[in-house]
Amino acid sequence: MNYIEKIVRVQKKFFYGNQTKSLPFRLMALDRLEASILKHESEIYEALKQDLHKSKAESYMAEVGMTLSELRYIRRHLPIWIKERRVPTPLAQFHARSFVLSEPYGVVLIMSPWNYPFMLTMEPLVGAIAAGNCCVVKPSAYAPAVSGVIHRILKDAFPRKYVAVVEGGRKENTQLLDQKFDYIFFTGGVQTGKVVMKKAADHLTPVTLELGGKSPCIVDATANLDLAAKRLVFGKFLNSGQTCVAPDYLLVEASVKKEFLMLVKKWIHRMLGKEPMFHPDYPKIINQKHYDRLLNLIKEEHIIEGGYGNLETLQIAPTILGQADWDSPVMQEEIFGPILPVLTFRNLPEAIAQVKRRPKPLALYLFTEDLGAEYRVMKELSFGGGCINDTIIHLATSRMGFGGVGASGMGSYHGKESFDTFSHKKSVVKKSTWMDLPMRYYPLKPWKEMMIRMFLR
Predict the structure, then answer these.
(1) For this structure, is 217 an active site residue?
(2) Of 390, 326, 374, which Cα lies nearest the Cα of 354?
(3) Annotation says 387 is catalytic
């Protein structure tokens, strides 16, 4: 028996002791997690700087601050969510009481990615703890400094029989997926997501898959072009484009393309300077493998901004491809880097048709002042979530769920959705014993059938 098998076995034994199911235990666990995060806060910033060259301000805004906000929101609402929920009882079941109980799945596996290595580990963990589960956490090996800090945070906060961290790479991932977990929560790429789902199927383990895809940003001629460019630049080049909901490509109305791209370049220079790679807070690409992949995507493209990198620092300048087409190599996969292909459309139905031909994206962004255009896009296009007249901020709330659809994922989390994701909803009918309607029992005579028809109208 390897150490991963031992962890799972010990956690199952602890879970069956029922300690994790009580509200005081869950609230205390959330308190301990918050305290440990705050204790190690400076280490988190140092690790994010080391792995991704993120500034302290960006690390707080996009990782630590969002995690703490989510934790506090869930802790505040948990006493309400944990209560049984009464539902009406059908007349045919008179007299009875019907209710739904939220119960934890048991021992869950959380596998997180490298692009937001702290937040995308901790936010699912908060939901799993709040729902009463034991957890095995597997951070990404591509962000080793953050993985080490996460290990220290959770070791300080919890015994391994309750929450355990498994560090490592492909070998550890394989060993984990060979175990029978009660739930698996995975955030990462589509190909790895398929592997996770296949492995989970061997044990009939339910999964949440938070994946990605090519998320479009549609800008029509009615949009506030300057503000649209500013918000696009923010969402696209945050974390050097390594964001699952970053605008993957720009679909701009042909009549305003030239003006809009000038504004995009203006805002790149205002935010990051004429030479962004000299900016002290500009993040780097996670490793050379992805650095090389990104530069290969733009070899034959028409570059109107950026288009170069620094191998020593693994940084790539914000890049705009002014004449991309749907068959370009850069349009065949999720970019996950600071590269923005630009395509055009003549009218909204054409733009909608182009997006429809492709797999459902994780996010969609629409910049318009036309309510009719807004209505059509929201009604006709399927996507995980998105924004009208902004980018990426839809995931920065605990009051709405976040997740993909189709090829971009399945399941949802954040706030109440996190609690529900990691909870089984147990439906119960408590039947009274002081009376018993006879109509359902054999022999089913005509008068009984008549009564059944009456009750089941």
Answers:
(1) no
(2) 326
(3) no
